[in-house]
């Protein structure tokens, strides 16, 4: 069955992304995994090549592309080439921070921030999670207190992607001044630039996706202008809820690309590896495994493609996004495990792409809302 998602423009964009990928990333990525860092000049180059902030309007330096299929192309190119941490780093910048600036930022905020966002000179992170608040964001304790025309932000965030090397963070903070249990209108969003009082821990030693740095952030009375508040005071949690479909769809897209790659990697390995005098593909068990991998990756891709089109039409609901994230991320976890098994011992060695896919997919049922929270969301909407 021919895939019906893409048109000519998307395929042209794929060539651009593939060319960037091989010129700027291939051959260097293994070192970035050791350094826990994607070099800053790569962000600049991605910006110069028009790969950042695709949805930013032309008046702010972007291309104003509101067709999510272009983001899918980019994700697929990075995932299939095994550059999974690059996909994640760009996802944080483009899918988790940008939508808030576009949807709720003032004209002044957009004109100051978006050009830097698009050209790669400012790397952003999305700082919601705290040591005491992951699935349940009402547990957020980071506080923003009024100080004249400004705000003073104090608190701690954890597991923040692009946290160690980022220049600014989208911070969810409590603005009701209370210490008791928070309500729906207790939180607001701020774009906080690295300045006095803003620091980070060392990147965490993650099991996978190591080139994308993940770190704690500390805010000690960081002064933030009211002009860098995003949207209305007290509406932070509502905005987070409204942006969940894109955040979850993005992870489903990456998960689906991982499923496809897992099949391809297993197929290639099994075709080239012999035991007892015959190729692995001569064994019925191997063929059955490959048949399952191929079929399940196609099912996942079809579901995700449909969700992408629904999102483009403004029709992907929160619970549908949860379904597609749940399905695709659990599939990626299952399929990479089975594909790894077909690699034997080689599957356990990180220089093999399947080992990278396996560890990356393990994050996808946790990050951006766990599978249990996805089931809660779907169940509540029944
Ligand atoms: C590598 C990595 C990168 C990350 N990047 C970012 C980032 O850039 N920005 C950011 O803000 N966050 C980030 N996170 C945080 C991530 O989104 C959270 O880890 C995730 O939301 C889960 O929160 P938690 O770790 O506090 O787990 P908890 O909320 O403590 O959950 C623990 C377990 O309890 C289950 N559970 C919790 N509540 C319920 C319930 N109501 N019903 C049933 N089961 C439940 C969960 O499903 C899970 O299995 C990242 C995490 C990792 C590991």
UniProtKB/TrEMBL annotation:
<keyword id="KW-0285">Flavoprotein</keyword>
<dbReference type="InterPro" id="IPR046373">
    <property type="entry name" value="Acyl-CoA_Oxase/DH_mid-dom_sf"/>
</dbReference>
<dbReference type="InterPro" id="IPR009100">
    <property type="entry name" value="AcylCoA_DH/oxidase_NM_dom_sf"/>
</dbReference>
<dbReference type="Pfam" id="PF00441">
    <property type="entry name" value="Acyl-CoA_dh_1"/>
</dbReference>
<dbReference type="GO" id="GO:0050660">
    <property type="term" value="F:flavin adenine dinucleotide binding"/>
</dbReference>
<feature type="domain" description="Acyl-CoA oxidase/dehydrogenase middle">
    <location>
        <begin position="126"/>
        <end position="222"/>
    </location>
</feature>
<dbReference type="InterPro" id="IPR009075">
    <property type="entry name" value="AcylCo_DH/oxidase_C"/>
</dbReference>
<dbReference type="InterPro" id="IPR006091">
    <property type="entry name" value="Acyl-CoA_Oxase/DH_mid-dom"/>
</dbReference>
<dbReference type="GO" id="GO:0003995">
    <property type="term" value="F:acyl-CoA dehydrogenase activity"/>
</dbReference>
<dbReference type="InterPro" id="IPR013786">
    <property type="entry name" value="AcylCoA_DH/ox_N"/>
</dbReference>
<feature type="domain" description="Acyl-CoA dehydrogenase/oxidase C-terminal">
    <location>
        <begin position="234"/>
        <end position="382"/>
    </location>
</feature>
<dbReference type="Pfam" id="PF02771">
    <property type="entry name" value="Acyl-CoA_dh_N"/>
</dbReference>
<protein>
    <submittedName>
        <fullName>Acyl-CoA dehydrogenase</fullName>
    </submittedName>
</protein>
<dbReference type="InterPro" id="IPR036250">
    <property type="entry name" value="AcylCo_DH-like_C"/>
</dbReference>
<dbReference type="Pfam" id="PF02770">
    <property type="entry name" value="Acyl-CoA_dh_M"/>
</dbReference>
<keyword id="KW-0560">Oxidoreductase</keyword>
<comment type="similarity">
    <text>Belongs to the acyl-CoA dehydrogenase family.</text>
</comment>
<dbReference type="InterPro" id="IPR037069">
    <property type="entry name" value="AcylCoA_DH/ox_N_sf"/>
</dbReference>
<keyword id="KW-0274">FAD</keyword>
<feature type="domain" description="Acyl-CoA dehydrogenase/oxidase N-terminal">
    <location>
        <begin position="8"/>
        <end position="120"/>
    </location>
</feature>
